[in-house]
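Lecture notes, part 5. Sequence design as translation. It can be helpful to think of inverse folding as translation between two languages: the language of shapes and the language of residues. The source text, in structure tokens, appears below.
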């Protein structure tokens, strides 16, 4: 049982898609996107600022409509101050959500930017994002900053499926051990890479569990309330409800994770033989940091694996 972002892959596939959509302005309801879907209280101030989430949404909507018009008329937008302000504000909106509402809201908001697409259309956008961002040479950290310096920060880009992780998935398969992914990224996003036999480990789709939106002809930014969403403790519930019944109720033999959100499934199963922790430099005082220290002490139940690759200037955080 593996987490996906920063565990199975280097960096975060949801963030790679988020960056791709910003850079190509690929949103379903162009040019009238509001960017507020999934934000529980838009009237709240963005932490550290004097504007509300709703006001930020209005600013982004205006900037986006202008940029969309330029792009549709063949203009190059990436050197425009307007574009640089837009992407910096998008970054600050994302960080503000984490600070104000917690990570669960941003986990929904990022893939919620696919709202309005059919599933087939959304998968095409994800496929193009993977094609642009996949590869060790694509890993980087950029500074996105508005002209006034008020908005923005460091953004990780690129994703990478290390050969060592592919070998591990293949080794499990060769030894008749079923591998699963349990991720707090949107399920259809993870499937586009995890189920690809050339780019990823080629898992069957029924072995990938992630966030699911409510059934609809076109994607919405609303959770499916009939499904256990695999966020934090939800990963344990998802494993027990959706996977363990196929194995007479037994827990996973091997669990791999990198973040605090993975600690519940790394500690919940008495019959787990090994917990594999990918060391991406989390705080030593965090729950995953405490497990990391346990692995360093040669506890027989946990193994510590250094991150397979890291972009220069990479920021802590992400990985769900």
């Amino acid at each position: 049982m593996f987490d996906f972002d920063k565990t199975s892959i280097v960096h975060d596939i949801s963030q790679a898609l988020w960056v791709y959509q910003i850079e190509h302005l690929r949103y379903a309801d162009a040019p009238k996107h509001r960017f507020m879907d999934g934000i529980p209280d838009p009237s709240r101030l963005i932490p550290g600022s004097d504007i509300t989430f709703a006001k930020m949404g209005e600013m982004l909507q205006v900037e986006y409509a202008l940029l969309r018009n330029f792009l549709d008329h063949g203009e190059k937008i990436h050197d425009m101050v307007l574009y640089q302000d837009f992407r910096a504000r998008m970054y600050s909106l994302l960080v503000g959500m984490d600070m104000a509402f917690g990570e669960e809201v941003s986990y929904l908001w990022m893939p919620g930017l696919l709202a309005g697409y059919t599933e087939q259309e959304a998968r095409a956008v994800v496929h193009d994002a993977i094609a642009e961002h996949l590869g060790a040479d694509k890993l980087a950290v950029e500074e996105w900053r508005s002209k006034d310096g008020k908005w923005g920060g460091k953004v990780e880009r690129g994703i990478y499926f290390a050969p060592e992780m592919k070998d591990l998935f293949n080794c499990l398969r060769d030894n008749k051990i079923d591998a699963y992914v349990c991720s707090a990224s949107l399920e259809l996003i993870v499937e586009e890479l995890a189920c690809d036999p050339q780019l990823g480990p080629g898992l069957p789709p029924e072995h990938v569990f992630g966030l699911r939106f409510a059934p609809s002809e076109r994607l919405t930014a609303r959770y499916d309330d009939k499904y256990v969403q695999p966020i934090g403790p939800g990963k344990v519930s998802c494993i027990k409800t959706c996977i363990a019944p196929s194995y007479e109720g037994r827990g996973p033999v091997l669990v791999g994770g990198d973040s605090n959100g993975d600690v519940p499934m790394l500690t919940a199963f008495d019959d787990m033989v090994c917990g594999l922790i990918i060391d991406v430099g989390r705080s030593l005082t965090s729950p995953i940091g405490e497990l990391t220290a346990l692995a360093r002490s040669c506890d027989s139940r946990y193994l510590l694996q250094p991150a397979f690759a890291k972009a220069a200037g990479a920021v802590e955080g992400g990985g769900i």
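The translated text above is only one of many valid answers, since several sequences can fold into similar shapes. The chain has two domains: 15-157, 162-306.
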